[in-house]
Amino acid sequence: DLEELQELLMVNIENNKHLITGSVRAKVLKWGEDVSEFQPPPDYILMADCIYYEESLEPLLKTLKDLTGPNTCVLCCYEQRTVGKNPEIERKYFELLQRDFEVEKIPLDKHDEEYRSEDIHIMNIHRKQTVGP
């Protein structure tokens, strides 16, 4: 995430370290830029509320493609917004995303009971498997 959120992310990691069985880290990442310091590809990428600005779609998709490996699981959570250009931006994002990724919607009954809502969506995203020659 951005620099100004790193401290909050560190607090969140510290408060949840008893739930972590592997390793976790939070680092600054600007979409569209080089991701080589994040290699090898992570096992998981958590995304929340990232698809509301049309100008950020291409850099976000480039970063996802560059950052993920064949076994990376991307969990994407977003609130569906119905005003202005938001529906068109959301449609375009998923259309572009599906060129390189498989997208599975997590059913509402699998969401946390306390926080579930009809307008909150969670997607499980994986890179499409490429077939060799």
What can you tell me about this protein's structure?
The protein is an alpha+beta fold and 133 residues long. The chain has two domains: 1-30, no CATH class; 32-127, Rossmann fold. It is built from three helices and four strands. It has helices at residues 6-15, 54-67, 86-97, and strands at residues 44-48, 73-79, 101-105, 120-127. The protein has a four-stranded mixed sheet, with no helix packed on it. The chain is globular and about 35 Å long. The mean pLDDT is 89.
In short:
With 133 residues, the protein is an alpha+beta fold.
What are the defining features of this structure?
133 residues; alpha+beta; Rossmann fold; 2 domains
Secondary-structure topology with pairs:
Elements: H1 6-15, E1 44-48, H2 54-67, E2 73-79, H3 86-97, E3 101-105, E4 120-127
Parallel strand pairs: 1-2
Antiparallel strand pairs: 2-4, 3-4
Protein name: Protein-lysine methyltransferase METTL21D
Organism: Acanthisitta chloris
Keywords: Methyltransferase, S-adenosyl-L-methionine, Transferase
